[in-house]
Design goal:
By secondary structure, the protein is an alpha+beta fold. About 35% of the residues lie in helices and about 20% in strands. Helix 1 crosses helix 2 and helix 7 crosses helix 8. The longest helix has about 40 residues. The relative contact order is 0.09.
Length: about 375
């Protein structure tokens, strides 16, 4: 069945089609979904080895169903349970407003996967486990396991969950609480396209909590994070955060206790965007150019071809200018190295000269 046919069936309110769309996005992250239509209530059950994050997933499922706007569905019920358990750990109910209007453009561009695909990709979460190089090292006061809590793990084949469900807590979409720093941290570790090995995986492991704190200050409650990728910006560790309306960069300078919002632009203010294997260049009016560089070419390619390509046209190029900040640092490094060699050779020459003079004065 093609993607178009699947979308049409989902718009008609077919539970199997809706579940198939959700599973395409969530199964790679270890979560499986089952859908059932009970009267005019669409019930979606999410299962994983660890209980799925309610604040993150319930909202994403709701946004996807709202954009999909299936026929004959008046309400949505999302449930989360642990694999092997019969009773869900949580449930949340939403009322779908029949007066809600959705543009044809939003509905046509992968309506369900747009808000949900950021919870899943073909890769494992880069920080699902603490890098071996830092085990037993730095300690922030909370263990990685306590931080992850209900983060998504690799998911085996799901079992049938047909047990009676507990009473759900109805919560209208407009009344949903704002995500906390810990929620954003979970989200970044789940969907972020960060290096998985080596030094940079360790750097991002400790940078993500700082970025999460910054997101609580700079991301409006009405905005949804669609995608995240690790980049270098002005020679510093950073990440690009994509929402439905903007693209922002948060940097983590060395020895800084906070992440800084160093760049932000509304998508409709981007006059031109070109991308290559090394990174991407954003061109704004008045000749303003900004360059970002990927740590991992594969993760960068996935970011470019994902949600970003659905929101803005991208020109592919082989040439991305070198980072002038990195060039400056490299030149300074070469100068310091040359200066140290000069000082050492001069000191050695002076020492040899004094030694020769002394031997000439006292030949025996």
């Amino acid at each position: 069945m093609t993607q178009t046919e699947l979308l049409e069936l989902a718009k008609q309110g077919r539970p199997t089609a809706i579940a198939a769309l959700i599973n395409r996005s969530l199964e790679p992250k270890g979560i499986t979904a089952k859908a059932a239509l009970k009267g005019r209530c669409l019930q979606i059950t999410l299962a994983a080895p660890k209980v799925p994050n309610q604040k993150v997933l319930a909202g994403f499922i709701y946004q996807g169903v709202m954009k999909l706007a299936p026929e004959a569905v008046a309400s949505l019920k999302v449930l989360g349970l642990q694999t092997g358990q019969t009773a869900p750990a949580w449930s949340q109910e939403f009322k779908l407003s029949p007066q809600a209007e959705f543009s044809e453009e939003l509905s046509a561009i992968a309506p369900l996967e747009a808000p949900i695909s950021r919870m899943g990709s073909s890769r494992k979460s880069p920080t699902s486990t603490l890098p071996s190089s830092v085990q037993g090292g730095k300690n922030s006061g909370r263990t990685p396991q306590s931080r992850r809590g209900d983060r998504l793990q690799k998911f085996p084949q799901s079992a049938d969950h047909s047990a009676p469900l507990p009473e759900s807590s109805e919560q209208p979409a407009q009344g949903r609480s704002r995500l906390t720093a810990l929620d954003y941290e979970d989200l970044l570790r789940d969907i972020g396209r960060f290096p998985q090995k080596g030094k940079f995986s360790v750097d991002y492991y400790y940078a993500i909590p700082k970025i999460a704190e910054a997101l609580t200050e700079w991301i409006p409650p009405t905005h949804q994070i669609l995608d995240v990728v690790g980049v270098r910006y002005q020679g510093q560790l950073a990440c690009l955060v994509l929402t439905e309306q903007s693209l922002a960069c948060f940097s983590c300078p060395d020895f800084s206790r906070k992440a800084l919002k160093t760049f932000r632009v509304n998508l409709n203010k981007i006059s031109h965007l070109s991308a290559g294997k090394r990174g991407l260049s954003i061109y704004q009016p008045k000749g303003i150019k900004t360059h970002f560089y990927f740590y991992n070419k594969r993760l960068g390619k996935n970011f470019i071809e994902g949600q970003l390509s659905e929101l803005i046209s991208i020109e592919k190029t082989r040439f991305i200018p070198d980072d002038r900040h990195e060039i400056t640092l490299t030149l300074v490094g070469y100068f310091v190295l040359f200066l140290s060699w000069t000082v050492n050779l001069t000191a050695l020459g002076v020492g040899v000269w004094f030694l020769v003079q002394r031997m000439m004065e006292n030949p025996f």
